[in-house]
Queue: 3 jobs
Job 1
Amino acid sequence: MEAVAQPISITPTAIKEFKNILSAKSDAEEQFLRVGVKGGGCSGMSYVLGFDSQLPEDVVFEIDDIPCVVNKNHLIYLQGLEIDWHNGLDARGFIFNNPNASSSCGCGSSFAV
């Protein structure tokens, strides 16, 4: 599938963390950052974030040399999503800032539309 414009954005701190994770993987050349959603979580939908192979139903794009994929059916929920990384005393991990979410849970890993 051909590459498309970026439907999501990743902050510089999150890009650094993704690159750290990729550099530790032995099969990094074959891996894409997968961003998606699935049913569940305390607000109705949960985010999916990990490294995976490209599938036929994926849209492909690149952010700062990180190859990314999103299932085209998930774009309605993820268009405009920003992924950030926090490494502080009060929180450590990836943070999702989603303009499509009408509400989200306290932990930030699930949302409602």
Job 2
Amino acid sequence: MRRHPLLLLLLLAACARPAGPPPQLGLVEPLGGGVAPGKDVLARGYAFDEAGVRSVRVQGQEVLPEEEVGKKLVEFRFRLKAPTSGRVEVVLEAEDTGGQVRTLRLPLVLDAQPPRIVVEGREAKDGLLRVYGRVEDNVGVERVVLQQGGRFSALALPKGTSVPFALEVSKGAVLIAIDAAGNRASRPLP
């Protein structure tokens, strides 16, 4: 008879464990939160919880594939139709197997303007042209590519709203800039 109260005490102690934190939740794409208006955007994200992730919802709709339910680290994808003007707020929710929910509200900026390529200086030397300048964008410059002949070379430049560049190019080269929303601009380099 003494064993039963002891067993009950052990069971109650096991139930009294504190729950861990709600799931971690993040969005990987679109980069920089920039979205071109009127386009479908493929968004990707992740959720992590030590106990396992039961559900991921975007704007109230389930996006977690059935085969991912219960895993500690899950990846999810969804399509978002961006309106033609204004700001969009995406509401993400992740629920763990214990019923805890984390909500994340992400604003997306509608960016209809392509980046601007500003050439600040140029000088000719030994048959090459040295060009200096910057690429600007209201949301963020994602990538800058140099086209010479039929070759495209991605430049190792930092990301940001104003990205400086200094290049040595041959005649006929074109600089191409792409912002975080996927808008493009190109400029022949004289």
Job 3
Amino acid sequence: MLPESDDRTRDRVRAAVLEHGPVSAAQLGTLLGLTPAAIRRHLDTLSEGGVIEVKLTSNAKSGAGRPARRYVLSRRGQSELGDDYLEIARTALEQLSALGGDAAVKDFAASRFAGMERRYLPIVEAAGSDVAQRSRALADALSGDGFVASAATIHGASALSAQQLCQGHCPIQELATEFPQFCDAETEVFSRLLGVDVRRLSTLARGGHVCTTHIPTGRVRVPAVAAGTGARPLSEASNHQQERP
């Protein structure tokens, strides 16, 4: 059995991969203050256990040279963070779908995220009218609920400027894999909170290493309206249909 100190260190490595992935071994060593040999040992153990996996990425600047090795949390690693009552929830949703079809599951998903929207609205509104600042406030609120979120600026022409919102953890990932209505409902909440038409680029449920949402900041913002007031979602197309593979 591993010494307790090794267990704690390994938990720190896994948490760092979750928060910063895709991340290199060298970056992890710097973040955690571990020697190259120590970080490699812990990464090897986590890889052998199926908790993390290697993602090969090209050189971001030139695209030339050998692909770089980056570590991300695996599907198993994501599920180990918490999937209590998963089978019960899956069975209930399957029965709901059988009785009421897609619309019933969609309504259920919308009701699940309605509470999140009510809690987040005053937080996002307090950030002011700037979409970028609202995006960062939304990321902070999501992180407070364990989604391990961040918002980064994508530079470009003013009309094309955007924020990219990333979520490193999804507590309902396995369910969302089978029922993408949950991803759609969450994305519609983001659109209403931010007042712009956002787009999902990737999701953990469809194999991405994070859930990524593109948020345009060079457009006029529409005032946020909470769900249940009769307002139409900003995006009429299904977000999981919009999502890039």
